[in-house]
Amino acid sequence: MSPGVPTLENLPLMDVAGRAARVRDQLEGAGYDALLVTRLPNVRYLSGFTGSAGMLVVAPEELVLLTDGRYETQSREQLEAAGVEARVEIAPGGAQNPVLAQLVAPYPRLGLEAHGITWAQQRVWAGAFTGVTLVATEDVVEGLRRVKEPGEVARVHAACAIADDALAATLPMLADAPTEREFALALEIEMRRRGASGTSFDTICASGPNGALPHARPSERRVQRGELVVIDFGCIVDGYCSDMTRTVSVGDPGPEATRMWDVVRASQQAGREAVVAGVACAEVDRACREVIDAAGWGDAFSHGTGHGVGLEIHEAPRVAKASGGSLDAGVVVTIEPGVYLPGIGGVRLEDTVVVTDAGADALTSFPKHLSIESAAA
Questions:
Q1: In this structure, are residues 317 and 325 in contact, taking their beta carbons and an 8 Å threshold?
Q2: Predicted pLDDT of residue 3
Q3: What is the secondary structure of 128-151 as a DSSP string?
Q4: Which of 61, 82, 117, 354 is placed for a possible disulfide with 16 were both Cys, Cβ 3.0 to 4.6 Å?
Q5: Euclidean distance between CA atoms 116 and 63, whole angstroms
Q6: What is d(CA 191, CA 231) in angstroms, rounded to the nearest whole number?
Q7: Distance between CA 20 and CA 5 in Å, rounded?
Q8: Three-state DSSP class for residue 371
Q9: Predicted pLDDT of residue 200
Q10: Per-residue pLDDT tens for 177-212?
Q11: What is the largest CA-CA distance in the chain?
Q12: Listing from the earlier edge strand, what are the strands of the sheet with 359-362?
């Protein structure tokens, strides 16, 4: 591991214990008496619990985690480690509804995360929770997660540093004409070796014409000299994701591909320079899009400019043409414009940045070079 790659022991603590109180502050006047948190990223955010099955009841005077026997020891240890005062209830998955009904019975109006349950689940609970009215809620916890505390930013930064370091170790193998799948696998292994617990999403390595597909899957196609290669990847550190894209070529890809890369590079820089606390999300997207429009490739920029990153690889806010709202200090977002020409290839350049009152601080730092041979010279 390179000296610059952080370790978990060096990361600052997070105020997990204080987060439930921020949810409680929203209960009064919200139209419900308690909130049932079912989305696992939100459960983790509020409690520190990382298991694959768990629900959290956030009420004015108590916090209760309901999980199953697989996580009895883990849940208690993780809540204690996070300093979270909560009661843990254990019940088998098939027998949890009666336990949950008892937990929520004191609260006549129960908030449910509208994006965290199925219609079938809501119907079951509507019948099981006697005397309780279910109220759909949206973005209660996600709204709190939007602005990151310093410990969260540090974890995203640590994941970005691992990704930076792994790409530096892996990029030279492109000169040996690996398959896209071989390169993607090697990159994922290098991130794991450096301490990542997993990948943020399925790694993209898209060479030549495959690069025209923004979310191409790595194939058995071999990377050739003189063609564009889009590499989009990230990893997870202590639950927090990183996201970065670089587009490179082994040698000179020719004047048209070079022009594509230069235009996207200028677009991405314009987007980064537009980021500052208080700016409208749509304004950042416009800054990127204007550069690509002026080059005549506006129709080839087929997605939004960016998205929030944290416990999930895609979270609020969206940075897109139709996005509402603005960027607050402490928000972590990507800036990732692209141009995609069917049958030819694509270019995307992406950084993850944290919004500040003075602008955007980049959390990804791998250099942007088109030719890996020129960069190595």
A1: yes
A2: 54
A3: HSTT-EEEEE-SHHHHHHSBPPHH
A4: 82
A5: 19
A6: 14
A7: 32
A8: strand
A9: 98
A10: 999 999 999 999 999 999 999 999 999 999 999 999
A11: 72
A12: 315-319, 306-308, 332-335, 351-356, 359-362
From residue 91, give the alpha-carbon distance in Å to each of 49, 65, 84, 118: 16, 11, 21, 21
Report the candidate in 183, 214, 200, 234 with the shortest Cα–Cα distance to residue 372.
183
CB 127 within 8 A of CB 22: no
Residue-level pLDDT at 5:
62
Residue of 262, 231, 263 lying closest to 247 (CA atoms):
231
Indicate the residue type of 200: S
Q: Are 248 and 231 in contact (CB under 8 A)?
A: yes
CA separation for the pair 142, 307 (Å, rounded): 14
Those residues whose C-beta lies under 8 Å from the C-beta of residue 13, and which sit 6 or more positions away, are 151
**Of 302, 258, 314, 306, which is closest to residue 284 (Cα–Cα)?**
306
pLDDT the model gives residue 94: 86
Placement of tokens 């990542």 in the chain:
196
What is the reported pTM? 0.96
Tell me the HSE value of 331 on the side-chain side, using a 13 A CA sphere.
Answer: 30
Q: Cα 140 to the chain's mean position, in Å?
A: 18
DSSP assigned state of 280: B
**359-375: string of b/e by CB count within 10 Å (b at 16+)?**
ebebbbebeebbbbbee
Positive or negative, the Cα torsion across 129, 135, 137, 141?
negative
Residue numbers in the chain where pLDDT is lower than 70? 1-7, 374-377
**Burial class of residue 377, CB neighbours in 10 A (0-12, 13-18, 19+):** exposed
Neighbours of 126 (CB within 10 A): 12
Side chain identity, residue 285: D
Helix (H) or strand (E) holding 360: strand 359-362
Residue-level pLDDT at 28? 84
Q: How many CB atoms are closer than 10 A to CB 256?
A: 11
